[in-house]
Amino acid sequence: MRITECFGIDIPVIQAPMAGAQASALAIAVSNAGGLGSLPAALLDGERLRQELDTIRRATTRPYNVNFFCHQPPSADALREANWRALLAPWYAEFGIAIEPIDAVLPDPAVGRPSAAAPTRASFNRELLDVLADFRPPVVSFHFGLPDEQLLAPIRGWGASILSSATTVEEARWLEARGVDAVIAQGLEAGGHRGHFLDADLTRQFGTLTLVRRLAAAVRVPVIAAGGIVDAAGVRAALDLGAAGVQAGTVFLCCDESMTTPLHRAALVGPEGAHTALTNLFTGRPARGIVNRLMRELGYLHTAAPEFPLAGTALAPLRAAAERLGRTDFTPLWAGQNTTGCRAAPAAEILRGLWPGPGAGDQ
After folding, report:
1. How far apart are CA 57 and CA 181, in angstroms?
2. pLDDT digits over 154-178, tens only?
3. Average pLDDT, the chain
4. Looking at CB atoms within 10 Å, which of 147, 235, 243, 330 has the fewest?
């Protein structure tokens, strides 16, 4: 069954939720154009979530998706934070920034002591659920697995479809066993954070088309292809291999309704946009972005990075200082491997370019 039937949309394309790069405007534009627009809630507290959902409700009667992270909140560790800042010290010195002092003397190394860093990305919780319940969106999606069943039950109760990302067959089967309505097959090409939750070994993850074919054979629920899809040919290939639809994000990053910064947009359409890599430096969890100075000089993946999402706290002053100079040395430039579709245009136009037309991929 195609996601057009599952979600009551016209075009089998979900606009990927992209926290920090969009708000409700992009979700509204895609939904009104016949796709499934998505609102990312990972950076929203309850009040801001309510404001965004109210905006969507006033602007469209079409189906839309609200996306949440459901990671385990981090156990902050002052010693690890201090070591991370010490690793960044040469760049602090280069930019003339004083490192905020953190007491790294722990009374009990086995217990640790909270650092000054605070999470910048919220995990789905009761407060967010209470706000969501007032709007009852038709689709709710999750990244990093699923929240506890007591948080999912009310969503099922109002009849919403529940989606989550899988990066392996095992994760897809785990999600199916817990009652999701569709699985998002997140291939290695995809931009932003990896959605893995059962196994962090990146060597066990597949490219999008291989993953779609494996998941379509392994689970009975619809499979949605995500990663590297920027044109109608990519949509057709995914449908031909058994996908019920696709999720596309990078192709929308330069559209009129996105909030992507000028520096990020320039990187996406410039030669550097062709080189992306997985890195944990910016948040503490592997995510795909355009390679920049920090990644080149420190290495893409580093064991010293604090637990997700705390790594970004110490980087914030460096990022701000570099951006004031027009540089992206310490800026996370999230993007998938294929940035060729990035262009300034209305989201509706981008969406229409992704849809190859009725009958594509039919067996």
Report:
1. 23
2. 999 999 999 999 999 999 999 999 9
3. 93
4. 147
Q: Distance (Å, rounded) from C-alpha 35 to C-alpha 15?
A: 7
What fold characterizes domain 3-73+121-257?
A: TIM Barrel (3.20.20)
Q: Are 356 and 235 a contacting pair, CB within 8 Å? A: yes
| Rg of the Cα atoms in the chain | 20
Cα angle 15, 248, 2 (rounded to 5 degrees) comes to 80
Enumerate the domain spans of the chain: 3-73+121-257, 78-118+263-324
Taking the alpha carbons at both ends of the chain, their separation in whole angstroms is: 12
Burial class for 338, CB neighbours closer than 10 Å (0-12, 13-18, 19+) = buried
The reply to whether the predicted model has a pTM over 0.85 is yes
Cα 45 from Cα 314, distance rounded (Å):
22
Count of C-beta atoms within a 10 Å radius of residue 177:
9
Determine contact, residues 294/303, Cβ cutoff 8 Å: no
Q: What tokens does 295 get?
A: 């990644």
Q: What residues contact residue 189 under an 8 Å CB cut-off, 6+ apart? A: 207, 208, 227, 228, 288, 336, 337, 338
